[in-house]
Structure formats: C-alpha cells, structure tokens
Specification:
Helix content is 50%, strand content 14%. By secondary structure, it is an alpha+beta fold. The strands form 2 sheets. It has a 6-stranded mixed β-sheet, with helices on both faces.
C-alpha cells in the first residue's frame, strides 16, 4: 500500500490533509528527541509541553471545503477476465483526488504532461489501494497499474468495455487539449494475474471516501460477452459479481431475516396478529398465509407487474399503515377471528409490494438466480417471523398473568393502533401530493400483454385462496380448536 495511504488510513481521519500527516511525523519525532534529554535537562520540559500543545491545536480537523471533499462522486468501473489476466477499468473525477495539487496552466487547465507521475500516485492512493478483487474466495495480489489517462468531461468511451480500453491505452492527451481540473476525468487500468477467466469473481471496493456521496457503477463483462450491471452507494462490502446459486440463496435468506426484524411496521402488524392468540399452532397457519400472500406480490413486482407510477409506493405505505390500524381495532372490538387468515392474506398482498421496494436495489446482486433469490428472501422473512413468534408468545403469556388478558389485549392494541394511525396520516399526506387521476388506457399490444399478466396473477391468487381454504378451515378458532359440529336438529 502507498505510504501516504497508510498514514491516512491508520493515523488520520478523512478530514485531515497529508500536510497534517507530515506534520504529525515531524511533531512526534521532535518530541521523541526532546524527551530523551528531558531527564538530563529539566528546563526542556516546558518546550516539549509547548510543542505538544501547539501541535494538537494545529491538528484540529479543518472544515473540509468543496475542493477537499466533493459532494457527489460517480465512479465507473468495468471488470473483464480474459485468459490469465483480469482487467479493471476505472474512471473517477479528478476533483476526487484530494490533497494532490496538480500542476495547472492558465485559466485552470490541468498541465497533463507535467502531472503524469502525480496522476499515477493519486490514482494509487485514492483508488488502487481501495480495490480488493477475489477469485473464488482468494484475494488477488500482484495488482499492476498499467495505464493512466486524463479524459475530457464530454468523453463517452466508458459506454462499453472495448471503447474504454481503447481510450485508456491510446496516447495521453497533450496540453493542446484544454481540460479544466474541476471537470476533468481520470481513467486507469489495473490488471491482476488469475487462474482462469471461468472463475467466479468478487469485489470489495472501498471508494466511499472519494466524496460525501459516492455512487459506483460497475459492470462485469462475462467471457460470453454478457454484461452484468451493478450500481450502489458507498461501500456495500463484498459483492459477488457472478454468484453461485447457494451463495445467492444464503445472501437473500439473511437479507429477508434482517429485513423483517428491521421493519417496524411489519413487526407491529405481526404483533396485532399475535395478541388474540395463545397457541403457536393457529398462528403458524395465519403467519404462513401472510407469507404466501406477500411472496406472490413480491415476485410479481420483481417481474415488473407492479405499477411504475410515482404514486404507487406512497399508496402501498399508506395501505400498510391502514392494515395495522385495522388489525388493532379488530382486536379491540373483539370480533370473531375464524377468518383472520383470509384477512391476513389480503393485507399480505399489500405488504409484499412494500417488501419489493426495499428489495429493488438488492436484486442486482442475485446474478442469474433471480427466482431463487426471491424465494430465499421469503424463506428468510418467514424464519424471522417465526423467531418473533417464539419470543412474543411467551412474553404475552407472562404479561397476561399480571394483567387480565382482555384488558392487556385492548391496551396493547390501542397503543399499536395509535402508532399506526399516525403513520397512516403522515403517509396519506405524502400520497395526497400526487395526481391520482386515471388516464384512459391506450389500446396496444403492450396493454394487452399487461392485462394477460394481471389476469394470470389474479388466477394464481384465487388458486392459492382455494388451496388454503382447504388447509386452513374457516372454522379455525381462537384457541386452535374447531368448534363443535352443529347438532342434527
């Protein structure tokens, strides 16, 4: 790793400059030398103390300027393995190369010829040392910076791998081409030795420090020419560019488990389902009904069957809050709960669209295993729900030993209803900002295809309802036992 990069990473927070880093080295070196003679010459103690205090005051992190830390940075990266080499082509804004004072000509144009060696240092400090590439699960070593190139902001060569490669490997720009430092782009090509271009590769690009908000647009070019795109903010951790099915499945099971535990609105809905019941068996049926329902709409959304209008997400979020209020009020009123699985199924369809909003950006990490990842996510959600039930049912049992069951159920439901009502009001206010007027459809082949797809979805839902009506009889009682059969009279 570059020595300046080591200093920044392990000694200084991002708000300190390299000048501060050099001063730290000088400061502690001087203090060390002085301290060797303090015992022999006590009068030097005051000078050492003054030096230390003055240095600490100077090392207070300065407020970063726009030049120091850019507000928005977009990084473009293209990865392709070919033969025994893996190439990564990178494009970053020049202004993201913080703390490097590149030589400039008149009017702020960068002096490309004079800055050649500094450009290589900058790309290594800010980018090269942050690129972690894995073949299977082995970190690749032997990184080589093959080429560095300054590009004009209007250059569009990173649209494809071949164009980007041609741009980086051609002759560098001369000073006859005027490129403003603030608008310029810095391109680089890194190479790694690999065992085979048929291996599975992963990346861990820690480039978030390039800006206050860093977006990485990464594309993997497979040996057959297929391009797999990724786009993410900050540092997402390990990204498997071409995951195996079990890797995708494990990732999305964990994601579903975490999502249900982090989603407070889904948890409150689950609490409303649990409050009237004292046994796990009837709850498993109801929670499974919820899972089946949200699985249908989640998968439908992944295959673009959900409306794409801007008003749809706030509509769904409002409906989710409404489902919490409805279930809580039903608990308070004390209506018969024999068909709760059916109502839960209906609200589960709504919650499924809500899950899809959270999953939308993550599905890019599924690779070619989209359906497997969706099923795995739902498995994770179900495991999370069952975990909550295992904890919640005994907790409610203990509570109802202290508080009468009916009073406790009403109080808990009222608290949940109060929270849900506030959410519903806030989300409805956001929804009201959108134009919900319906425009007459234009009859074309696309509309016919959409109608057929939605018709298929309705048939699937109807079939699931029929199947569950056989599995979960409508006579399911609160205590988990069906009522006595009617008399023959």
């Amino acid at each position: 790793m570059h020595p300046i990069s080591l200093l920044r990473r392990f000694c200084l927070p991002p708000s300190y400059s390299k000048t501060a880093g050099l001063y730290i080295s000088y400061l502690f070196g001087t203090i060390y030398c002085h301290s060797r003679s303090v015992a022999a010459r006590p009068e030097r103690r005051l000078s050492v103390l003054a030096l230390l205090v003055g240095g600490l005051l100077l090392l207070q992190p300065a407020t970063p300027s726009t030049h120091d830390i850019p507000a928005d940075v977009t990084v473009q990266a293209i990865v392709k393995a070919q033969g025994q080499r893996l190439r990564m082509l990178i494009r970053v804004p020049l202004v993201a190369m913080q703390d490097f004072n590149f030589p400039q000509r008149e009017e702020g144009y960068i002096d490309v010829e004079a800055a050649e060696s500094m450009l290589r240092d900058a790309i290594m400090v800010w980018v090269g040392d942050e690129l972690n590439v894995y073949e299977e699960d082995t970190l690749l070593t032997g990184q080589e910076l093959v080429a560095v190139q300054v590009s004009h902001p209007t250059d569009r060569s990173f649209a494809t791998y071949n164009e980007a490669l041609a741009r980086i490997t051609q002759q560098p720009l001369s000073n006859e081409t005027n490129v403003y430092f603030e608008n310029g782009l810095l391109d680089a090509m890194f190479e790694y030795p690999i065992s085979s271009d048929q291996s599975n590769f992963s990346t861990d690009l820690t480039l978030a420090r390039l800006g206050l908000r860093t977006v990485t647009v990464l594309r993997l070019v497979l040996p057959d020419g297929t391009v797999r795109p990724f786009e993410y903010f900050g540092n997402p951790g390990l990204v498997r560019l071409d995951p195996r099915w079990h890797q995708a499945a494990f990732r999305f099971v964990a994601l579903g488990f975490e999502h249900i535990l982090d989603g407070i609105d889904h948890l409150l809905f689950l609490v409303c389902l649990v409050i009237p019941f004292r046994r796990l068996r009837p709850l498993v049926a109801i929670v499974t009904s919820f899972t089946v329902a949200h699985s249908v709409t989640l998968i439908a959304s992944a295959f673009e069957l959900a409306p794409a209008a801007a008003w749809f997400p706030p509509l769904v979020e409002t409906a989710i809050a409404l489902s919490i209020v409805y279930m809580a009020v039903e608990n308070i009123v004390g209506v018969k709960l024999r068909r709760r699985w059916l109502i839960t199924f209906g609200f589960g369809l709504v919650h499924g669209f809500g899950f899809s909003f959270a999953l939308r950006e993550t599905l890019q990490f599924a690779g070619p295993h989209l359906l497997m990842s969706l099923v795995s996510f739902n498995v994770g959600v179900e495991l999370g729900q069952l975990t909550v039930l295992v904890v919640l049912i005994p907790a409610l049992g203990l509570l109802f030993r202290v508080v009468p069951e009916r009073i406790g159920a009403v109080l808990l439901s009222a608290l949940v209803a109060h929270t849900g009502w506030h959410w519903m009001s806030e989300r409805a206010t956001v929804l009201a900002l959108f134009d919900l007027s319906l425009q007459p459809p234009q009859w074309n082949l696309s509309l016919v295809a959409n109608v057929l797809q939605w018709g298929t979805l309705v048939l699937v839902i109807a079939g699931l309802l029929w199947l569950m009506s056989k599995i979960f009889p409508q006579t399911l009682a609160v205590n988990g036992k069906p009522p006595a059969p009617p008399s023959s009279e």
